[in-house]
DNA sequence: TGTATGACGAGTT
DNA sequence: CAACTCGCCATAC
């Protein structure tokens, strides 16, 4: 645990954990909320290290609602399974009604 | 120690 | 309308 390591990653984890059940958010939304709209990339990469954390990475997708990070989960469709178990419709790695389940930290938080 | 790269996104060509 | 480029910064090699 590195206290001086309060970086984007840590912040990303914090926000990601705040995503309510049955909702999803985007990498860009988190980055934007953190004040770094251009660092959406880092958010995604941060999830790479979120394995150890309690971060629900399956609730974080790209701006199009596409499950781009599903390949980083154990199974091939684990991410989709998790989302569907929360009542989120997913077809072909794409979240249906994305606007409805989208959770914007800048507004809700 | 330096280079390459990645779960993205928005702007430009 | 599609493809390309740049920004961002921690991690891997």
UniProtKB/TrEMBL annotation:
Gene3D superfamilies: Winged helix-like DNA-binding domain superfamily/Winged helix DNA-binding domain. The lineage of its organism: Bacteria, Pseudomonadati, Bacteroidota, Flavobacteriia, Flavobacteriales. This is MGMT family protein. Residues 8-88 form the Methylated-DNA-[protein]-cysteine S-methyltransferase DNA binding domain. It comes from Mariniflexile aquimaris. Keywords: DNA damage. The keyword DNA damage applies. Pfam families: DNA_binding_1. NCBIfam families: ogt.
């Amino acid at each position: 645990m590195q206290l001086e390591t309060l970086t984007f990653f840590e912040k990303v984890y914090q926000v990601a954990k705040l995503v309510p059940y049955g909702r999803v958010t985007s990498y860009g939304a988190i980055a934007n909320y953190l004040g770094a709209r251009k660092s959406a990339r880092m958010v995604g990469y941060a999830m790479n290290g979120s394995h150890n954390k309690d971060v629900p990475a399956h609730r974080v997708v790209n701006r199009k609602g596409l499950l781009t990070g599903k390949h980083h989960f154990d199974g091939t469709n684990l991410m989709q399974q998790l989302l569907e178990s929360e009542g989120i419709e997913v077809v072909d790695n794409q979240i249906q009604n994305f606007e409805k389940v989208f959770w914007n930290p800048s507004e809700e938080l």
